[in-house]
Amino acid sequence: MDAIALLIAATLNAGTVLALAGLGLLINERAGVVNLGAEGMMLVAAIAGFATAVGTGSTLLGLGAGLLAGALLAALFGWLVIWLNTNQYATGLALSLFGAGFSAFVGQRFTQERLSAPPRLEIPGLADIPLLGPALFRHHAMVYLAVAATLALAWWLTRSRAGLVLRAVGESPESAHALGYPVRRIRLAAVVAGGALCGLAGAHVSTVYTPLWVEGMIAGKGWIALALTTFATWRPLRVLLGAWLFGGVTMLQFHLQGEGVQIASQWLSMLPYLATIVVLALISRNPAWIKANMPASLGKPFHPSA
């Protein structure tokens, strides 16, 4: 029972990073913008958050610094692709390469630094329930924030006027422009908000999840989050469930090793990425289903005529 509780708790922790980044990318794509730079943004945010936490002793300030770093990089990306009309895919890849190199350069002096483990939030009355308590109610506040953000975004996209306008921009920017909505500004706001969530996810990795700095520590999570939005058919609740699924696959390798399963560690380390490939392969078998759920203007530039 204790092993099961630990596995569930580890799954929720690992899934939080993917959920936050996936929600950020979902906001981008709902507005019609594809951002392949999530990996780079998360790396820069990770070193920004870690350096800030080391310098100030505050994990909260570290998370805020990561959020700001992600938002600034996303704003640069948005300016390039929305106002200068650069190719979204090439610009996103360039951002990922930049983030990997920049974070490695800046992070050299922080490789020996360590942060103390942040306190967990134990919910009174629930944290002591056998099995469920350790599994669900003894986590860092970021785990609960990811759940709250998912529910809030699901409501916002379907129930609020602003959310419906964002979806309209993602479906038909020409029609939204004809109705008088500032399409490019809305897209830029969506890109910045999405980048802020990716930045928060990156800072969470270096200050909470594994409170240290290692070059390339995001380890493909930005790419998995990108695949997660397609897997979830651009729906927030499915993003969260998918993040927990991928988080569970990631943690399964350590659980199996702890149980003494005689499998090479390299094979176990491949599990999250293998699962991503399998999921994308299965989804791609039904392109009509993807097209029916995908924002119609995804990846397409918009040039206002007036």
From TrEMBL:
Residues annotated as transmembrane: 6-26, 33-54, 60-82, 89-110, 141-158, 188-206, 212-232, 239-257, 263-283
Location(s), subcellular: Cell membrane
Membrane topology, as annotated: Multi-pass membrane protein
Stored InterPro entries: ABC_transp_permease
Keywords attached to this entry: Cell membrane, Membrane, Transmembrane, Transmembrane helix
Alphabetical list of Pfam families matching this protein: BPD_transp_2 (PF02653)
Name listed for the protein in its UniProt record: ABC transporter permease
Organism: Pseudaquabacterium inlustre
